[in-house]
From TrEMBL:
The modification N6-(pyridoxal phosphate)lysine is found at K200. GO terms for cellular component: cytosol. The keyword Metal-binding does not apply. Keywords: Lyase, Pyridoxal phosphate. Belongs to the threonine aldolase family. This is Threonine aldolase. It comes from Marivirga tractuosa (strain ATCC 23168 / DSM 4126 / NBRC 15989 / NCIMB 1408 / VKM B-1430 / H-43) (Microscilla tractuosa). The keyword Cell inner membrane does not apply.
Length: 338
């Protein structure tokens, strides 16, 4: 099977497993797991941020950030295609009692001007208090597209001006960094909190980190505990994260090259209506003749290819660590034969 459903399906490599088994561990709820402490410090330093907290999932790191930055009667501003809105079970309301203002960005990327127009008057008792802006980079639903850092600077300066917090859902931030060559420390400078996933392109079995100021991460520890995310000797998992930060960032380029090759092969095939521009490791294409994505994905499965339906007419492929050039060649051959 050629499995392109997600970059979460990867298996830990031998090197990663060896690093995991060799990890010194302790009780992280007591703050005594040396490997988790090392991972948190390493990730914070990478982005030039003060502190970090290791969590089981990116949903948890995003939801903790939202909880830390909001309160009842407040509002989160984000794009309508955001993971925090679409794919986190209504967590903004459930975990934080906050409202959400949905913007219609360019493939999920919003601008400072759009945000400016959607900040509520804090003196109007009818309206929730605008408190947090959340961006996603790369943008999953936008076909893995990347923000122009200039826009992020504008958004960050608007947020400071208007006293809004700025969070980044960076589940695939490393893909954005590799695609643009941007300095990670610029991200640390402009966002109050950043969520990164180790279990996507970086190839870890489990784990995400929330990065931020010492004060915010201290609050995050309390929220993580109440959500049931306080883990004990989880340093075995953190060791995989340290290994991934050391070995698996630069290789994301290969995933991007292969994704572009898939997009080129799809372009012009008779079952394809259009392919979204590919910037990183996600390929989303629309089916021709209003064919349903669910049916098409079933057809692919019979040919040994796994993908996910991404909306009624759209199909998504994601390239990753366990998808190599031989599989790419085989995939393109199979697609052309359909
Ligand atoms: C995968 C993902 C997350 C986190 O998902 P988990 O499965 O909870 O780790 C968050 N945001 C985006 C954009 C994602 O793709």
């Amino acid at each position: 099977m050629i499995d392109l459903r997600s970059d979460t399906i990867t298996q830990p490599t031998t090197g990663m497993k060896e690093a995991m088994m060799a990890a010194p561990v302790g009780d992280d709820v007591f703050g005594e797991d040396p490997t988790i402490n090392a991972l948190e410090q390493k990730a914070a330093d990478f982005f030039g941020m003060e502190s970090a907290i290791f969590c089981p999932s990116g949903t948890m790191t995003n939801q903790i950030a939202i909880r830390v930055h909001t309160a009842p009667h407040t509002e989160v501003i984000c794009d309508e295609k955001s993971h925090i809105y679409l794919y986190e079970g209504g967590g903004i309301a459930y975990n934080s009692f906050a409202s959400v203002r949905l913007l219609h960005g360019d493939r999920g990327r919003i601008t400072a001007d759009m945000i400016q127009d959607n900040i509520n008057n804090p003196d109007d008792v009818h309206a929730p208090i605008s408190t947090l802006v959340s961006l996603e980079n790369t943008m999953n639903k936008g076909g893995g597209c990347v923000y122009d850092f200039k826009e992020i600077e504008k958004i960050s300066s608007l947020c400071k001006d208007k006293n809004l917090k700025l969070h980044l859902d960076g589940a695939r931030l490393f893909n954005a960094l590799v695609a643009t060559d941007d300095d990670p420390k610029k991200y640390g400078k402009h966002f109050d909190t950043i969520s990164i996933c180790l279990s996507k392109g970086l190839g870890c079995p489990v784990g995400s980190l929330l990065l931020g100021t010492q004060e915010d991460i201290k609050k995050a520890r309390r929220v993580r505990k109440v959500l049931g995310g306080g883990m004990r000797q989880a340093g075995f998992l953190a060791a995989a994260g340290i290994y991934a930060l050391d070995h698996n960032i630069k290789r994301l380029e290969d995933d991007h090259i292969r994704a572009k090759a898939i997009a080129e092969a799809l372009d012009g095939l008779k079952f394809v209506d259009s392919v979204m521009p590919v910037e990183t490791n996600i390929v989303i294409f629309k089916l021709a003749n209003n064919a349903l994505s669910v049916d098409f994905v079933n057809k692919l499965k019979q040919k040994g290819i796994l993908a996910v339906p991404f909306g009624k007419l759209d199909v998504r492929f994601v390239t990753h660590l366990d998808f190599d050039d031989d599989m790419l060649e085989d995939l393109i051959k199979k697609l052309k034969a359909i």
